[in-house]
Amino acid sequence: MQAFWKGTVQIAKLQVPIKLYAATEEKTVSFRQQHRACSHAIAYQKYCAHCETAVEPAEVGKAYDLGGGQFIEIEESELKLLAPASDKTFYIEHFVRSADIEPYYMKKHYFIGMDEVGEQAFRVLHAGLFKLKRTGIGYITLRSVQQLAALWATKEGLMLTTLHYADEVRPALSAGSPAAGPFAQPELLEAFGSLVSGMSVPFDPTEYRNVYQEAVKRLIDAKIAHRIPNGPHPAPVAEDGENLVDFLSAVERSLAHIGQEPVPKTDKKAKRAKAAK
What we know:
Blueprint: E1 5-11, E2 14-22, E3 47-48, E4 53-54, E5 62-67, E6 70-74, H1 76-82, E7 89-97, E8 106-114, H2 119-132, E9 134-142, E10 145-153, E11 158-163, H3 186-198, H4 211-224, H5 247-257, H6 268-276
Parallel strand pairs: 1-7
Antiparallel strand pairs: 1-2, 2-8, 3-4, 5-6, 7-9, 8-11, 9-10, 10-11
Helix pairs in contact: 3-5
């Protein structure tokens, strides 16, 4: 695996040389667009509707839309002057508790590898962050774009994760999520806890398949073999009454479905009598 970025992590006066490797890659089957009549690829050309003419790359500029049909032109040379001075240093500004970073702030993950020098500093950085459960937050320039990023440790090694800025994350309440607070129905939590426990297993990502991509590949293989592929598997039909309003009843049916004992009914009168004593 080839590193796509080499540089240093700078923490105050401490510098640790590192390499970055993409932690994930897309496995989506890609298609090209082509002309049905001749099977040749479709080419796209920039076109100005006002001048009714094709536009060459050298004639294309950038502009910011002010609204009302007004624009401010921005030159590429002006944007380059705003770029960070260094694109080879990951500057750590602060350390935060790792548990305080919500997953929706995370964008893309990278494995961090050791450089040819600085092995001791690298190992201290990994062991220290892992033991303290802290994550470094700072700025790094990747592909000429400055990004907010997190430096954190797993059992296997160090990771860098690019982050969304605060104004890029929408408020949860705007999506209809309830405000955080105490839940006043413990019997429902107990029932749901039983369901979660019954369905809990060690995480193994190889257990989960990309069923759609597998079907696409089967379709392609079938086309290559000049035969008609098998049809899609029928979607499971929900039994009558699956769409229950009563949460507790739904959980009990779910427990029965996975072979777990239902949650015993709570005798509220007995609880009150016990509390009175």
